[in-house]
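Standup notes
- DV: blocked on the single-chain target, sequence here:
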Amino acid sequence: MKDKNLYGDLEFVFKEPQNFEGCTLLNGWHGIGECGFISMSHLVDKLGAERIGYIITSNIPQFITIKNNKITFPFEIYRRDDMVVILPIFEPIKSEHLIFTKSVVQWSIDQKFKQAVLIGGLDRRLQDEAEIKAIYTQAFRENRTDVEIPFLDEGLYVTGPLAYMLMFYELNDFEAIALLPYAERSRPDPVAASIAVKEINKILDIDVNVQELLDEAQKIEKEIESLLQASRSRKDSEKDSDEGMFV
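- DV (later): unblocked, structure below
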């Protein structure tokens, strides 16, 4: 029997009941360089994480594909030990960004997750001497003084689903960090995603190899481009002007 958690118009569906107390939530979006999605996909593959559930929305994208001979859903949930990955194959439609992110944040808090690690991207044209910047909630900063990634520069803005999640985690005094590697804005950037994964290794004390991201950069770019094309087709059919390129 499947276990279901309802949060307004969102439904969290699991193969069986889960205990998430003390877990880390990982999540990345289709932002600049596709860093969030690429890094999360790599973590799922290299950790050998199990798909334990899905998120269903009122306007779930009408696209599926096949991976490892299984149907993939637009919003999937994977787990390996105390690491839980929410992998959005596609983004929610723009009108659902608020309810989707607010519900995910509230669900993670209700389920007693310990912390959240979020991935975005920064336009490489703005890069200084650092490879990556970060945004911390106050709770994360106070409890994880060992993490010393430079702060995002004042005057730069985060937008889209990532901004919502940081906002709601801060309002709930929850430990969360957003990792923002500098990336190419015009194409998927596996190299930038590898920088994010290296920092995740440090934060979570794990050892996920990133060499494959570097070795197969061209192949990964082609695979992501096919997803982007499907996403663009969906948005064209909805006449949605949002380009889906978020920090």
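- Follow-up: Residues 163 and 247 are 8 Å apart (CA to CA).
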